[in-house]
Amino acid sequence: MTARCSEQERQIRIDLAACYRLMPLFGMSDLIYNHITARVPGTDDEILINPYGLMYEEMTASSMVKINLNGDILDNPNKDMDINKAGYVIHSAVHGARHDVGCVIHTHSRAGMAVSAMKQGLLPLTQTSMRFRDIRYHDYESVAVDLEERERLVQDLGDQDAMILRNHGLLVASSSIPEAFNTMYWLEMACRVQVDALGSGLEINMPSQEVIDKTHYLYLPTTRRRFGLLEWPAMLRYLDRRNPGYAD
């Protein structure tokens, strides 16, 4: 861990590394691709991102690359590894526009990509899906290396915490790492359920709009609690039993 790292940044690095290692355990990683970024505490323009070349299960607190929103590398302990430009474009767009966001997760999961290719988008089939009643959509513009796409991406996201990148994958933007992981887990499960249900070929039972609206309201972070915070210690215990060492 860099000697210039504050205690607050160290904790963010540990949680971020844990989040990376949890993703493959729940089937939400894609070889060395995709990214989870976290804002460096006390800054408006610095984020932590994974080096391009490590798998999620290899990530540690000390292997994070610190960059600014201009794409300049401020600290990179990984010899011969850079960052993925497409990841920088997507994540810097959200962090730059949304100062309420502390963590952004983007995935290319099988179910997420499948739903992203469905014209009707995410359907409110279960209470997990109803949590995403207001999910946003961003049309595919090819591999995200064009800086001009950032403006359109953040416009499409608006003030929501989840978005489907059409013909591409999923994205969540939350105030903290625990909340972001929890939101992505729910979104992934909603996509898997939809693929399974539609693939069954059986008639689908759709709930009423009244029930959808009520369920969505009950899952808002301002209604009962901020989902993810209560669950995070359990997730860390789960990880410690399976893939410790992320805090190194």
TrEMBL record:
Pfam families: Aldolase_II. Residues 14-195 form the Class II aldolase/adducin N-terminal domain. InterPro entries: Aldolase-II_Adducin_sf, Aldolase_II/adducin_N, Aldolase_II/adducin_N_sf. GO terms for molecular function: actin filament binding. One of its GO terms (cellular component) is cytoskeleton. PANTHER family: ADDUCIN, PROTEIN HU-LI TAI SHAO. Belongs to the aldolase class II family. This is Class II aldolase/adducin family protein. It comes from Allopusillimonas soli.
